[in-house]
Design goal:
By secondary structure, this protein is of the alpha+beta class. It has a single domain (2-71), classed as Alpha-Beta Plaits. It contains two helices and five strands. It has helices at 15-19, 52-56, and strands at residues 2-5, 25-31, 37-41, 62-66, 69-71. Strands 1-4-5 form a three-stranded antiparallel sheet. Strands 2-3 form a two-stranded antiparallel sheet. Strand 4 (62-66) and strand 5 (69-71) form a beta hairpin. The chain is globular and about 35 Å long. Bound molecules: iron/sulfur cluster (2 copies). One iron/sulfur cluster is lined by residues 3, 19-22, 24-25, 41, 47-53, 64.
Amino acid sequence: MRVNIDTDRCKGCELCVRACPQGIIDMATEINAKGYFYARVWDQPRCIGCKLCAITCPDIAIDVSVNGVQYEYFSY
Ligand code: SF4
Ligand code: SF4
């Protein structure tokens, strides 16, 4: 499992933080190019690959890879 967050697309809404059943996403203490505190995965090995974070993100900033298959949601 690998979760990739495009930090510069993030608007700091924290929806992914609430969506993650493992509680492994939090907000960085630094800001991105837009001036928002961005989301980050702080304990990647505990990810179960549920993809809820990617489905929840309104800004399509997250993609998840499970066993080599990359999932992107509503990529436009
Ligand atoms: S895929 Fe699931 S477990 Fe992994 S970071 Fe996203 S919400 Fe959390
Ligand atoms: S849901 Fe998307 S935009 Fe909102 S904090 Fe998470 S990565 Fe950033």
